[in-house]
Amino acid sequence: xxxxxxxxxxxxxxxxxxxxxxxxxxxxxxxxxxxxxxxxxxxxxxxxxxxxxxxxxxxxxxxxxxxxxxxxxxxxxxxxxxxxxxxxxxxxxxxxxxxxxxxxxxxxxxxxxxxxxxxxxxxxxxxxxxxxxxxxxxxxxxxxxxxxxxxxxxxxxxxxxxxxxxxxxxxxxxxxxxxxxxxxxxxxxxxxxxxxxxxxxxxxxxxxxxxxxxxxxxxxxxxxxxxxxxxxxxxxxxxxxxxxxxxxxxxxxxxxxxxxxxxxxxxxxxxxxxxxxxxxxxxxxxxxxxxxxxxxxxxxxxxxxxxxxxxxxxxxxxxxxxxxxxxxxxxxxxxxxxxxxxxxxxxxxxxxxxxxxxx
Length: 359
Ligand code: ADP
Ligand code: MG
What we know:
The chain is of the alpha+beta class and 359 residues long. The chain has 2 domains: 2-155, Phosphorylase Kinase, domain 1; 159-296, Transferase(Phosphotransferase) domain 1 (Transferase(Phosphotransferase), domain 1, Orthogonal Bundle), CATH 1.10.510. Helix content is 37%, strand content 16%. The strands form 5 sheets. Strands 1-2-5-7-6 form a 5-stranded antiparallel β-sheet, with helices on both faces. It has a two-stranded antiparallel sheet with strand order 3-4. Helix 5 (223-240) crosses helix 6. The longest helix is centred in the middle third of the chain and has 22 residues, at 167-188. The N and C termini lie far apart (59 Å). Magnesium ion (MG) is lined by residues 47, 198-199, 211.
């Protein structure tokens, strides 16, 4: 119990980060008495909405629940049951079709449980598709136990705090991140929605994506707006590390493009690399385009559209472009349509004049 007091004193959010509630304490004690955990050590981080503890798992095998873990270090993420922090989170909830008809609760205990469930489920899905993230081990109420990323009880550095790596490494990490974002969107069908150097750890020379409780399904109403923000954050950060990044617009296009597949992914990345290498990163036209893109209109409700509605929306969109209300064509792209919106796009624009065999 002493360890709970070891929380980061510098944390500004003292007002809401009082110690854990009794129910959560009992729950953690139970984990130990049930043998799921061996010990629970110090708190490695505390934020507005969670405490993260280091602990150890003695190894755990339960056929009934199809669980089988080796002995290992774990991170115990406790979602706070007494916090005002969840107030800002409604935006992640609204439009999430899995919660259609479910009223956003203001009961912090219920919310804490909801976010823990989401974190657990999202980590599971990510891992299934090969995203480098902690392994979700078990979930109970507002507590998620996952594999610990770091050495012994010291968590791996966040990208924000990472020092002393070469530009070559930053370039590799950038490449890894943009590919992960694409897999997240296309395969896991998630948009992280809080992706930045704060929520990516660096371990074994790779980026590890964490903090996915607020991540949303890629087909929900606000998903593309969150994705655009994620693209912006990642670009801004890696640029500051001297990486020649794609424009935010290009990254967004890459993540959402339906015309990129396993056959043309490598050529696409190579071609983009060639283009970006030739570009002046301070190119003011590109920066200008990106800031326009950040303000551009993003159509909502990509899900649940039938053919007729899609066509209607496309028409409206073309109209808007003609009227000069928006200069960007990304709607068609996101839907996998040609620039002219009159058919399915099968090859990314930049690969059109390369000679690639069709799949
Ligand atoms: P929050 O929502 O409070 O930001 P995060 O999931 O980002 O929660 O976790 C906060 C911090 O806890 C991280 O920055 C990291 O230092 C640490 N942490 C979280 N998960 C792990 C993990 N699996 N392994 C090691 N450290 C972790
Ligand atoms: Mg975080």
